[in-house]
Design brief:
Layout (H helix, E strand, L loop, with lengths): L6 H12 L2 H13 L1 E5 L10 E4 L2 E7 L2 H5 L9 E5 H8 L5 E4 L8 E3 L1 H11 L4 E2 L15 H12 L7 E6 L5 E6 L3 H17 L7 E6 L5 H5 L4 E4 L24
Helix pairs in contact: 1-2, 2-4, 2-6, 2-7, 4-5, 6-7
Length: 255
């Protein structure tokens, strides 16, 4: 297996290798999360460029600019940058499918028009959020592996939105995900990402509720011994450009 360039390509390789419904749903989650470069007719009138195929009429999107450019033979290509979920919402109801990475060198995927509409609906899912006291909590029991994987996919794509998340059980076998250290924007983004991942995985009715607490909240001590803990990745730190002449590989340009 060759090395993947992007997380979407990694998910595609896993889907091809496993051939399972779970792997396909995992790929669709990554597709919704991915930044895509959508080929459009022009920047002045940003309509999707449509390809007529045996599988229907397709809008074309790529997960790197290089893949998009490879189809243009060096000519400038107008494109719009958007997430996979935004692309699905834009195409919803248009009768267009979505062709992803149709470059002829691997990683190609076609989501038909019905699939595009389904992905758009899934991306609009929103979670149930617990308000007030959390009540009696316990160690979670009999968690479906698909649910754990869906939660992990959502949280791993949520860099900088919160610090930790803790999955615990409640009365009646319900589950509660307690997220610590998320601000208002993080709460909205995390909630949407989790609901979307669960919807794509087909787990909307599995009874997972969200609760948000401050970093260092006393309840976290209670959760330490009973919860499944997830540590969210930190937000990437933007690299500051160095002063001219500091990098010997990039000497200052003198004109």
């Amino acid at each position: 297996m060759s090395q993947a360039e992007t997380s979407l390509e990694t998910a595609h390789m896993q889907m091809e290798a496993e051939g399972s419904e779970a792997a396909r749903r995992a790929y669709l989650t990554r597709l919704a999360q991915a930044e895509l470069f959508l080929w459009i007719t022009s920047e002045e009138a940003p309509e999707p460029r449509v390809l007529e195929t045996e599988e229907g009429r397709l809008a074309l999107a790529f997960d790197t600019e290089a893949r998009l450019a490879s189809l243009s033979e060096g000519a400038p290509v107008p494109y719009a940058t958007l997430s996979g979920r935004a692309a699905a919402r834009m195409l919803r109801g248009s009768g267009l499918g979505l062709g992803v990475n149709l470059t002829g060198v691997g990683g190609a995927f076609v989501l038909d028009a019905e699939g595009v509409d389904w992905l758009a609906v899934a991306s609009d899912a929103r979670p149930e959020v617990e308000q007030g006291a959390l009540g009696a909590l316990s160690a979670p029991e009999e968690i479906a592996p698909e649910l754990l994987e869906a939660v992990d996919r959502a949280l791993s794509s949520s860099a900088g939105w919160a610090q930790t998340a803790h999955l615990v059980g409640r009365d009646g076998g319900a589950l509660l995900l307690v997220v610590a250290g998320a601000g208002p924007e993080g709460e909205a983004a995390l909630g949407a990402a989790l609901a979307e991942a669960l919807a794509i995985a087909g787990l909307e009715a599995d009874g997972l509720t969200l609760a948000f607490v401050e970093a260092g909240a006393p309840v976290l001590l209670r959760l330490a011994d009973i919860a499944i803990r997830f540590d969210l990745p930190a937000a990437p730190v933007a690299e500051m450009p160095g002063a001219p002449g500091r990098d010997p590989a990039k000497p200052p340009r003198i004109t």
